[in-house]
Amino acid sequence: MTMNYNETMNKDKVDFGDLAPQPFLLGLLSAFDNRYQAVADRCIGEITWKQFFAVICINICKEPPTLNELSEIMESSHQNVKQIILKLEKKGFVETFADAKDKRKQRIKLTNSCREFCERNDEFSKEIVGKIFVGISEQDLMATIKTIMQMERNLNTI
Q1: How many domains does the chain fold into?
Q2: Model-level pTM greater than 0.85?
Q3: Is the residue at 70 inside a domain?
């Protein structure tokens, strides 16, 4: 579902009343996250956005992560990440193996099938990201990043 904020705000669909910009931004971020996930799920097709995000997180690790390490990186619960990994494993995108130093730990690595999937979809992913940021200056983007990073630091103090 796409939402035209200008149209919505000018109609009788919602009443923002005296809503301060801070809660409005938090709501906007949450709504954007939901819409982005739906669009990404539709565009990616073969796997969900959350599964693809797990692939991205595994890929940026210097060594194959454990489930706990991946949960920390994704900022998600152990149970949620476990379910994502099980689904990726069924699709042949990841493999788990025992850690060489501690056999109790299971590490997660991407498969060749996953790497091929990422290569096939790299240009398309860049195109989608490019479309999302059309009309946004680098200055505005950097201010947004700075703002959200400060919000993240503030959240960690609560």
Answers
A1: 1
A2: no
A3: yes
